[in-house]
Amino acid sequence: MFTGIVEELGEIVAIEHLGDASRFQVRGPVVTEGAKHGDSIAVNGVCLTVVDITEDAEGTRFSADVMAETLNRSSLSALDIGSRVNLERPMALGGRLGGHIVQGHVDGTGTIVDRKLSEHWEIVKISLPAELSRYVVEKGSITVDGISLTVVDAGPDHFTVSLIPTTLALTTLGVKQAGDPVNLEVDVLAKYVERLLGRDNGTQEKEITA
């Protein structure tokens, strides 16, 4: 489990295409400290498994295999060598939940529609797949490229977020522009509530007609 609090900006240093999968090499000295084979690291909000860790003159990097399903459902397929990525290690047991509960399971992708600069922050409008709009509410939480953010405005096909200077400086949202894709993960609690309410309704209907 992650919290959506980005630990560092990493960099894609190599991509090996393997037919129905790809192997990414990502430089990230902070998230690789103490990491080992089999550990999880979120890359732009996608939970990936560490294959190996290597060091060179420019720092520590880790490799991760990305299957076709992940490439098709996320914006990782748009990454290239030199792309900057948001990196986060799983939350340690007993650690503080600084953002919200993030699984690292991308629900879909959106696109940055517009950016409006204010004096001390920036308002970013992001498109939203119609099937995800019911999980996004004003003042609720959403994960954008692995960043835990609070929704300012929620529409049928978009939402807006306010980015403070720290978020702009320390994450990829500081440099992404209109037209760039982003990974979206809605609040998992909303999905569980929807499923449970659906089951309760179905149970009640059966009891009434019995």
UniProtKB/TrEMBL annotation:
Annotated Gene3D superfamilies: 2.40.30.20
InterPro entries associated with the record: ATP_synth_asu-like_sf (IPR023366), Lumazine-bd (IPR001783), Lumazine-bd_dom (IPR026017), Riboflavin_synthase-like_b-brl (IPR017938)
Domain Lumazine-binding: 1-100, 101-197
GO biological process: riboflavin biosynthetic process
UniProt KW Repeat keyword: yes
Lumazine-binding repeats mapped onto the chain: 1-100, 101-197
Catalytic activity: 2 6,7-dimethyl-8-(1-D-ribityl)lumazine + H(+) = 5-amino-6-(D-ribitylamino)uracil + riboflavin
Keywords from the UniProt entry: Repeat, Riboflavin biosynthesis, Transferase
Function according to Swiss-Prot or TrEMBL: Catalyzes the dismutation of two molecules of 6,7-dimethyl-8-ribityllumazine, resulting in the formation of riboflavin and 5-amino-6-(D-ribitylamino)uracil.
UniProt-recorded name of the protein: Riboflavin synthase
Organism encoding this protein: Streptomyces malaysiensis subsp. samsunensis
Record lineage: Bacteria, Bacillati, Actinomycetota, Actinomycetes, Kitasatosporales
